[in-house]
Amino acid sequence: MLGEYYEFVGLALFVLLASLPAWPALFFLRGWVHACYDPARRPAAGRRLMLAAALGGVVYLGAYIWGFHVEPNGPELSRIDLKGPFDPPLRILHVSDLHLEPDQSPRDQWVVDRARELAPDLILLTGDLNQVNSRDTVPLANLLSQLKAPLGVFTCIGADDVTSLEKAAPNVTILKNKAVTIKHGGKTIALAGLYPSGPHAPVYAEMAGADYKIVLNHYPDCAEEAARHEADLYLCGHTHGGQVRLPLWGAVYTYAATGKRFEAGRCQLGRTTVYTSRGIGMVPPPAPQVRFLCRPEMGLFTIGAAQ
Question: CATH second-level architecture of 77-304?
Fold first, then answer.
């Protein structure tokens, strides 16, 4: 029951925590109102009210600056080590939910710089590369043309305009509900990109016999399906980790049919490692352009026998 209505619980917790800094001011406001009938107590009550209001204002201002200006522009690299059949280890850079805008943000350049610095064997993107409903190919071309890896750059489809993506990034292979095979260290990798809904059975059939199976989907919704087909790694995004997270609770809202189950980070389903990226960008306006306790993220996976 809680899983079905998690967003209502999360919203209630958010309202409760967001109102905490105002509580002292409301308490002293009550005291100040009572003191209005007692001239001797009025100055002290007024000072207490002003101090509580000032402290609450500082907290709200700090949260605003942090959530709207600091944290959204402070991406981090998550490093994930997994066991696999590769020697030397396979290094994969996972990037999701760029939500590229016409004006380049510091996050976009950070992605390019880290990708060049890390020099991964393979770069995998999991959709929503352009901002939702945008067909502007300039930001796509500016960033994606700079992503290069020896085994290639691949993406699945989120809310992307495929025509714009193909025009802007001929160096990126778009997996439109299909699988391809590549090799690393003498091992065969089956790499699939799923559409949000089926049929997926032909795609899984294309992956049969590979030494390692990777499934890309923008959404976490097909993670259990991929696990039933014995995928080794399922990479997705879409949730943005919630963008706003609460201590001990996590995402207030995940935008996903799976609710909080795959809201962010690593989850194990049998042999299948599921990883949901918090993504780089943010949902488009008019939604608040905010991140709180949920920094933008890019993942570097190192997969090898010694991990």
Answer: 4-Layer Sandwich (3.60)
